[in-house]
């Protein structure tokens, strides 16, 4: 080792930077024993370097998936090539608490980790340097943006009052269902529904009660549907239900079940208990339909007949 004062000073600077750099540095041998442990790791783990040195990394951090990390460390040594672990693959390797005030919403520190081989003077590799980067700010901002985008996407497809799909979502669902019908020629039903005398509810009890009625009806409609079904608010007091792989008889059974449940709804108003009924128009996609508008028009005709026939009923219109 050189005794040159300048070389000694440079070495001192190097060790000082390694200790105080704002990244974690851990050096392990091929038995996963700690040989170096800088102040970043020491401060966040609460374990001093003097205690950590010589111990197995997995004894100090028993929550680390040892089989998973050992395989990566072995590959770094055997292949003499670095491996990078992103926070998106694994949010954190070391269970450190987040300490940044700006990102206080994160309980744990998000980390990127680089595993790099350390080559000895004779060319052999028996050590791995783990470099731990605190990327909590980046991760939290990205997750917040993703959550915001998901929320915007949800809002763009959802009716804010009833939480059902909105009119904008209907076109895509109808087109997809119609394309499936054209390709497979299976049974697919389309239902249009309308709350009977809804204008009278608004006029007599006010729009807040009318909103409660819409919400209650929407809840019954959605609770009776399958995961593959589409239940949407068409506009005002009208709803559209797409029932894939369902024939007219199955759709009629669904509508009658839901219709009876809706008739049992009781909404408290200032001076009365409000009850409503609903009418359904049902049609099944058929070969004579040129497009979804033909299919939708037949369901609308069926709904008109239900209204004309006295309301609070379900009517099926068959195609040619």
From TrEMBL:
GO biological process annotation, one example: negative regulation of bacterial-type flagellum-dependent cell motility
Catalytic activity: 2 GTP = 3',3'-c-di-GMP + 2 diphosphate
EC id: 2.7.7.65
Gene Ontology molecular-function annotations: diguanylate cyclase activity
Top enzyme class: transferase
Family annotation (Pfam families): GGDEF (PF00990)
Residue stretches making up the GGDEF domain: 186-319
Cellular component, GO annotation: plasma membrane
Needed co-factor(s): Mg(2+)
NCBIfam families referenced in this protein's UniProt entry, alphabetically: GGDEF
Name of the protein in its database record: diguanylate cyclase
Organism: Marinomonas arctica
């Amino acid at each position: 080792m050189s005794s040159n004062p300048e070389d000694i000073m440079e070495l001192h600077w190097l060790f000082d930077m390694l200790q105080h750099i704002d990244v974690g540095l851990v050096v392990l041998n091929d038995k996963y024993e700690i040989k170096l442990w800088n102040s970043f790791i020491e401060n966040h783990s609460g374990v001093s370097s003097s205690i950590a040195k010589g111990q197995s990394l997995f004894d100090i951090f028993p929550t680390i998936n040892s089989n998973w990390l050992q395989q990566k460390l072995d590959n770094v040594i055997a292949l003499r090539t670095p491996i990078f672990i992103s926070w998106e693959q694994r949010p954190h390797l070391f269970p450190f608490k987040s300490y940044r005030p700006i990102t206080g919403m994160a309980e744990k520190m998000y980390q990127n980790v680089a595993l790099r081989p350390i080559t000895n003077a004779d060319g052999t590799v028996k050590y791995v340097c783990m470099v731990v980067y605190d990327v909590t700010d980046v991760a939290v901002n990205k997750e917040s943006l993703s959550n915001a985008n998901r929320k915007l996407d949800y809002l763009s497809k959802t009716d804010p009052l009833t939480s059902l799909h909105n009119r904008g979502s209907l076109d895509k669902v109808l087109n997809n269902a119609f394309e499936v019908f054209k390709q497979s020629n299976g049974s697919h039903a389309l239902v249009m529904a309308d709350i009977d005398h809804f204008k009278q509810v608004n006029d007599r009890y006010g729009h807040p009660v009318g909103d409660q009625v819409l919400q209650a009806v929407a809840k019954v409609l959605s609770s009776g549907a399958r995961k593959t079904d589409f239940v949407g608010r068409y506009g005002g007091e009208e709803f559209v239900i797409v029932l894939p792989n369902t024939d007219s008889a199955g759709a009629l059974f669904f509508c009658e079940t839901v219709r009876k449940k809706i008739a049992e709804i009781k909404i408290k108003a200032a001076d009365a208990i409000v009850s409503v009924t609903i009418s359904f128009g049902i049609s099944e996609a058929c070969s004579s339909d040129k497009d979804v508008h033909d299919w939708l028009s037949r369901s609308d005709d069926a709904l008109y007949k239900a209204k004309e026939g006295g309301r609070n009923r379900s009517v099926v219109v068959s195609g040619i």
